[in-house]
TrEMBL record:
Transmembrane segments: none annotated. TPR repeats lie at residues 236-269. It holds the Pfam family TPR_6. Residues 1-18 form the signal peptide. Gene3D superfamilies: Tetratricopeptide repeat domain. SMART domains: TPR. Keywords: Signal, TPR repeat. It comes from the Bacteria. This is Flp pilus assembly protein TadD, contains TPR repeats. InterPro entries: TPR-like_helical_dom_sf, TPR_rpt. The keyword Signal applies.
Amino acid sequence: MRHPIFVFAGLAAVLALAACEKEIDRDAVDRKLQDINVIDESNLNEVMLTNSDPNEAVSYFQRAAASQPKRIDLQRGLAASLIRAKRPTEAVSAWKKIVQLEDSEADDKVQLADAYIRNNQWQEAEEVLDSVPPTHETFKRYRLEAMIADSNKEWKKADSFYETAIGLTTTPSSVMNNWGYSKLSRGDYPGAERMFVQAIRQDTSLFTAKNNLVLARGAQGNYTLPVVPMSQQERAELLYTLGLSAIKRGDVETGKGLFRDAIETHPQYFEAAVRSLSALENNTAN
C-alpha cells in the first residue's frame, strides 16, 4: 500500500519542475524580445540618422540620450544629427562631451574636429587632430588634415594629405574637388583644371566640380565650355559663371556674349544673367 505522503511529495516535485520549466521558457522569451527590441532600435537609429528630417532626428536622439545617458551610441547619434541639421555650435558641444567619456574612440575626436571646422574654429580643429594617434588612418581624418593644411597655406602638406585621403575611399570625387579648389586658390589653374576633370569622371552629377572647372578655365582666358556631361540648366549656369570670369578678367564684350548665351540656353527665365547683362549694358550706355 502506497503512503499518501509519498504521492503528494511526488506530485509536488512534478509541479515544481513544471513551474521551473515555465520560468525558464519565460526568461528565454524575454531575452528574445529584448534582442528584437535592440534590432528594431538599431534600425530606427539608422533611419533617423540617414533618412529622417535632421531636426526631427535631433529631437529623437535628445529624448533617447536623456532617458539612457550612459549609451554613447545615442550621444553620437545626437551629435551627428546636429551636424546634419546645420547646427555646428551645438554639435561641437555634443562631440566635446562624447570625447570625455571613458569608452570614446579616436574617431570621436575626428568628428569633433569636423564640427570645429564647420563652426569655423580652425585652430581648435587642428589641436584636436594633433591629439589623434597617427595609427588612426581614415579617409575623414586625412581629408580634414588636408583642409587644415590648406587654411594654413601649407601646400605640400595639403597635397600629401589629399593624396592619402583619395587612397582611402572608393568615392573620391568630393575630395578631388576639394583638392582642385585648393590648387585654384593657389593660382595653379592648369593643376586645378586637371583635378576637377578627374572629380567629374568619378561623379558626373557633381555640379560643384563642373562650376569650379569653368572657373579654372576662365581664369586662363579659356571661355569655351568643357566637354563634360551637363543638363540644359547646368549649361546655362556654367555659361553664366564663365561670363563672370570673363568680366573679372576685363573681357567685357565676351562676358556679355556669354550672358546672352546663358539666357538663350536656359529653358526658363534666367534672372541672374538678365540682371547682369542689363547692368553691363546700362554702364556702357552711361
